[in-house]
Automatic annotation (TrEMBL):
Gene3D superfamilies per UniProt: 1.10.286.10, 3.30.1130.10
The family this protein is said to belong to: Belongs to the GTP cyclohydrolase I family.
Single GO cellular component term: cytoplasm
The keyword GTP-binding belongs to this UniProt entry's keyword annotation: yes
Coiled coil region boundaries: none
Subunit (UniProt): Homopolymer.
Binding positions (Zn(2+)): C92, H95, C163
Annotated pathway: Cofactor biosynthesis; 7,8-dihydroneopterin triphosphate biosynthesis; 7,8-dihydroneopterin triphosphate from GTP: step 1/1
Name the record gives this protein: GTP cyclohydrolase 1
Annotated EC: 3.5.4.16
Record keywords, A-Z: GTP-binding, Hydrolase, Metal-binding, Nucleotide-binding, One-carbon metabolism, Zinc
Length: 210
């Protein structure tokens, strides 16, 4: 897990051509024991590469830019803002198989708020990369904290990892819960409790049974 290549926000471009990516898929098909030239598999490499474009579209997006449009006229609103149950699909960086789960994102505004869709977009940008759940949790929380500069940020993610359900240890139904609390959510137990109570109320049927 050391020396991993960490994509940065400016690391958008790939030096791999689409033709090379499709050739790699043909190699994997051959390696799996099938014939990439048979009719049913002829278009598969281009479909796989198009799927990967979607699965990993988060590398081409800048989360700070998404959060840059804020509203300051909130008429004295100074309570926490919590978006619950943001469903996401990601891929684990160890096996490149799906991580499916929900993120709960809250913050305590300091005059400025963002459009609520941007919280879901923030989750989406980091989900659409190769991930481990802990890293994704930290990235979402830290980005929101540094760009919006609120009084605090709280992120809880619950997810099911298909690398544990469809292969390897084969344990369906297990979920991993991760969290990151910053500012008031870290310092003040009652603020944290309020957030967790809101998230808890929305819990249940959260983890897909995959
Ligand atoms: N901490 C953490 N681990 C993860 C996550 N996704 C997958 N993993 C784990 O990453 C580990 C990789 O372990 P390795 O022993 O290198 O790989 P492996 O031989 O395929 O391991 P098994 O999955 O146990 O078969 C596994 O234990 C996975 O369960 C994640 O989001 N966070
Ligand atoms: Zn995995």
């Amino acid at each position: 897990m050391t020396n991993e290549r960490v994509a940065t926000d400016t690391d958008h471009t790939s030096d791999v051509s689409r033709a090379d990516a499709e050739a790699a898929v043909r190699t994997l098909i051959r390696w799996a024991g099938d014939d990439p030239a048979r009719e049913g598999l002829l278009d598969t490499p281009s479909r796989v590469v198009r799927s990967y474009e979607e699965f990993f579209s988060g590398y081409a997006q800048d989360p700070a830019e998404i959060l840059s449009r804020t509203f300051s006229e909130v008429d004295g609103y100074d309570e926490m803002i919590v978006m619950t149950d943001i469903r996401f699909e990601s891929h684990c960086e160890h096996h490149m198989v799906p991580i499916i789960g929900k993120a709960h994102v809250g913050y305590l505004p300091d005059r400025r708020v963002v459009g609520i869709s941007k919280l879901a977009r923030l989750v989406e940008i980091y989900a659409k990369r190769l991930q481990i759940q802990e890293k994704m949790t930290v990235q979402i929380a830290d980005t929101l904290h540094s760009v919006l500069q609120p009084k605090g940020v709280a992120v809880v993610i619950e997810a099911s990892h298909q690398c544990m359900t469809t292969r390897g240890v084969h344990k369906p139904g297990v979920g991993l819960v991760t969290s990151r609390m910053l500012g008031a959510f870290r310092k003040d137990a009652s603020t944290r409790r309020e957030f967790l109570a809101i998230v808890g109320m929305s819990a249940g049927n959260v983890l897909p049974n995959t």
